[in-house]
Design goal:
With 130 residues, the chain is mostly helical. It has four helices and three strands. A three-stranded antiparallel sheet has the order 1-2-3.
């Protein structure tokens, strides 16, 4: 459960008082436009904002559909307000979350670079490892 380590803010990005959260010229921290778990655009969906937004350490948003799919309580997260932390901050991201996708892509990129470097070394050494 995310309850112990987290709870999303009641911030609703659709309200007029939060429009500057999407404004790149604003001094306030910008919210993510997409759910951290499923990448759906959250502007028209129920969602929760990580309470660490105020501290400037996280800007992640989790949509209501992902709360339901993972057995998390959106209403409770909203009640906890700034005390709630997103699954990423709580260390409880599901496997389909964007941080996992990013890490998998990074590992594949590292593997390709290592393989390419090895091939270049063999070519440079005329078939011999250098």
């Amino acid at each position: 459960s995310l309850r112990a380590a987290a709870a999303p803010s009641t911030t609703n990005i659709n309200t007029p008082d939060n429009t500057d959260l999407f404004n790149p010229t604003s001094s306030k921290r910008l919210l993510s436009l997409h759910c951290h778990v499923c990448t759906r655009a959250v502007a028209k969906l129920s969602h929760a904002v990580c309470g660490a937004l105020g501290a400037g350490t996280c800007r992640k948003v989790v949509c209501g559909r992902c709360f339901d799919a993972n057995g998390w309580d959106l209403d409770e997260a909203r009640r906890e307000g700034e005390k709630w932390r997103c699954p990423h901050c709580a260390g409880a991201c599901p496997r389909q979350a964007q941080c996992f996708a990013y890490n998998r892509a990074t590992e594949r990129r590292k593997e390709r670079r290592a393989a390419n470097k090895g091939a270049e070394m063999r070519v440079a050494g005329e078939g011999r490892l250098v």
